[in-house]
Structure to design on (82 residues):
């Protein structure tokens, strides 16, 4: 019987950690872009609420998923709202 890791790798072509980071980063993007709800929360507050323990691991995952840093994403999101 295949284990969960094998099923995830076979079905998605990615490991569990990669999929988890993609989900967390997508949620971070939503929160960074939603200044009405999350504008009073820092980037650190957002990544900590999503389970990241350090800025470096969050920044690395964010860059891998989006191709930019969280602060660059935030600036871009603010410009697009204007």
């Amino acid at each position: 019987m295949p284990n969960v890791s094998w099923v995830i790798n076979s079905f998605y072509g990615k490991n569990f950690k990669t999929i988890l980071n993609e989900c967390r980063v997508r949620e971070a993007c939503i929160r960074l872009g939603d200044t009405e709800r999350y504008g009073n929360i820092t980037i650190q507050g957002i990544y900590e609420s999503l389970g990241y323990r350090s800025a470096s691991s969050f920044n690395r995952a964010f860059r891998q998923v989006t191709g930019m840093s969280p602060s660059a994403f935030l600036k871009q999101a603010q410009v697009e709202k204007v």
User: Anything to note?
Assistant: The radius of gyration is 15 Å. DSSP finds six helices and no strands in the chain. The chain has a mean pLDDT of 92. The chain has one domain: 4-81.
